[in-house]
Write a structure and sequence with these properties.
The protein is an alpha+beta fold and 189 residues long. The chain has one domain: Beta-Lactamase. 50% of the residues lie in helices and 22% in strands. It contains six helices and six strands. The protein has helices spanning 2-16, 42-45, 58-66, 69-79, 92-105, 147-188, and strands at 19-26, 29-36, 51-52, 108-111, 118-127, 132-141. Strands 3-2-1-6-5-4 form a six-stranded antiparallel β-sheet. A hairpin with a 4-residue loop joins strand 5 (118-127) and strand 6. Helix 1 (2-16) runs antiparallel to helix 6. The longest helix is centred in the C-terminal third of the chain and has 42 residues, at 147-188. The two termini are 34 Å apart.
């Protein structure tokens, strides 16, 4: 999944001029696996490979939206709702409400929830064949825009990027299966 997302993360960063990132869920935490266009030095605050709690940013909230209510409750119980800024969600009901809105809208938006003065939009990505889930996100300073302008300008491109990654995953899986079937058939005939 990570390899299939790198090109799209880079392309989204080039097209928008914003920082773009890809994160995966592992052991009830999120991990950023790659970042592009980090002109603001945000990876200094949240370095690649450093774990984060899923409730603390748009990428993690998008990932939580893919999970069942039971799995989400288990993660909340296991990890708690630790805050990193005054805007981090620290109330179970508020988080469940936000996750439900993410499920309805297809994206998560966060303002200053993990890093002060930074807004982000995250869209989840699933690869059910490999039992992996992740999210692509776009991030930028809120000093340059309002939350509504940020949403209007970037939700579409982030959703399109997520769709592109999921399509790439499904095509490769289909191609690999098709190619493997031909190889097996040639040996069996």
């Amino acid at each position: 999944m990570c390899d299939k997302s790198k090109e799209t993360v880079k392309k989204l960063g080039e097209e928008t001029g914003c920082l773009t990132a890809f994160a995966v869920k592992e052991n009830n935490r999120g991990y950023f696996t790659h970042v592009y266009n980090d002109q603001y030095g945000l990876s200094d605050v949240s370095p690649l490979g450093q774990e984060f709690f899923l409730h603390q940013n748009a990428s993690g909230q998008a990932i939580l939206a893919l999970l069942s209510d039971e799995k989400t409750e288990k993660i909340i119980n296991d990890t708690g709702l630790e805050t990193v800024t005054e805007y981090t969600i620290d109330n179970r009901d508020d988080l469940i409400g936000k996750i439900n809105r993410v499920r309805e809208k297809g994206y998560a938006i966060g303002v200053e929830e993990r890093i002060e003065r930074v807004a982000s939009i995250g869209v989840n990505i699933s690869d059910p064949k490999n039992d992996q889930i992740g999210a692509i996100s776009i991030n930028g300073p809120i000093s340059q825009t309002t939350k509504e302008e940020f949403r209007e300008k970037y939700v579409g491109p982030v959703i399109n990027a997520a769709d592109e990654i999921e399509l790439r995953l499904s095509i490769e899986d289909s191609y690999s299966f098709s190619r493997l079937s031909k190889v097996v058939a040639s040996y069996c005939s």
